[in-house]
Amino acid sequence: MTLKTLDREIQVRMKYLGDPAARISLFIIFFWFGILKPLGFSSAEPLVLKTVDWMPILTASQWLNVIGWWEVLIGIFFLFKKTTRIAIALLFLQMGGTFMPLFILPEITFQPGGVPFFPTLEGQYIIKNIIIISAALVIGGNLSMLKTKDD
Hints:
Oligomer: single chain
Strand content: under 5%
């Protein structure tokens, strides 16, 4: 077996395993981190509560529960190809809120005088979501196009 053949075989296996691995990873992240919020065990709770305390209709604690269950749904919807589009839509809506603390709470998400280059642990927690968005884009890009009557 040549190096080129081996490389191609590895690429084929990575393509075959990549989509399910990304789906399962997103399920684990969203389900696990999401369920911690309504159960009262999320280390992100103080940050979420400070981020949503201005929002109307519900209390900050109620918004925390809504966000948690929303994340659980995102995770579950990523497990199934038929619900992937819903998962991606929910994810992109959720990500808008996830990045809000970088702008409305810079005193928490960045070290003093460090905007935008020195994020705190909370800021790093938020910024790492860029890879989650990228994984969702890859999964969405790999969805097969729906067949039409004309195909």
